[in-house]
Task: structure prediction
Amino acid sequence: MKFNLRRCVWEITLACCFSCKYCGSKGGKARENELTTEECLNVADQLAELGCRRVSMIGGEVFMRRDWKEIVGRLAAHDISVNIITNGFLFTESLLADLKSLRIESVSVSLDGPKEVHDKYRQEGSYDRALAALAALSAGGIPTSVISTLNAENVQTLPALYETLCNYPIFAWQLQACSPMGNAANSGIDYAFDPREVIRFVTEHMRTAPFMLGVADNIGYFTPDEGSIRGNMSGTACFGGCRAGISAIGIDSIGNVRGCESMYDERFNEGNLREKSLREIWEDEDAFAYNRKFDKSMLTGPCASCAQGPFCAGGCRSYNFFTHGKLYEAPRCARAMDAQPDK
Result:
């Protein structure tokens, strides 16, 4: 079976001006052996050769890598759309000019709650700078969105953050679950929350919000409004299973390739770009076997008997793995929770 690569999440550096309490990659210092500029440009060429159409560029903090413009420029030369995910802390007017000249598709700013909550998990002063970045990006004509990483505490502040974001001309707001990996696994964060609360919040506001509002792939699945809660209100935008290794990959700053950059564990590395070409890794018939060779018989727990199990394939592989180690069983499936009798 042929698999077509369409999307890539590329961590170009681990360097970051923060060390957030729930950073899954433990960002802060750059790795000693990060890909060189020439190596990154070659990776961009390989992505284009395989037909990749969209790259989400992450860190660390993307803008702490001095050659980020060259890398984005090479991707753009191949007509690959680039989205940059940033904490907004290093934003300047010259940075805005660079983004405009590179014709960035969009910029996503991380914002996780009102000021006292956001700064608690990131860094004092980071909330104000993130909002300033939102305002400047939007005013500069750069399509801008917000990504919020939810845990047991800040999920309660969604209404307050919504009221704030309504004052900014963003085009989308995505809500994703904090996964207990990296710093989040070591800092004692209570990451668990009831996904039904988030889904109810989205369904309450998605038709009147001045921006697209939706949940990420690690929240769900197949509640009555499934087809409309992922930023597309067509009613048909249902979660179709984890895309890691099917149409998407992740690349880290030293060239490791995995199906998803959130599957941040060595056992999911399929190869390194200093040892093999991206095509060799992608077209290896034994690579990404956890998804490419998925069969509904692999489902466990409530997912094994769920009518939607063959379609959602047990939910988000990364969240499943880091939460309870079971790849094919969603630990906090909203549909399964609704099916459980009240205690």
Remarks:
- Strands lie at 7-11, 54-58, 81-86, 106-110, 144-150, 172-177, 212-215, 248-251, 256-258, 271-272.
- The first strand starts at residue 7 and ends at 11.
- The CA atoms of residues 65 and 262 lie 21 Å apart.
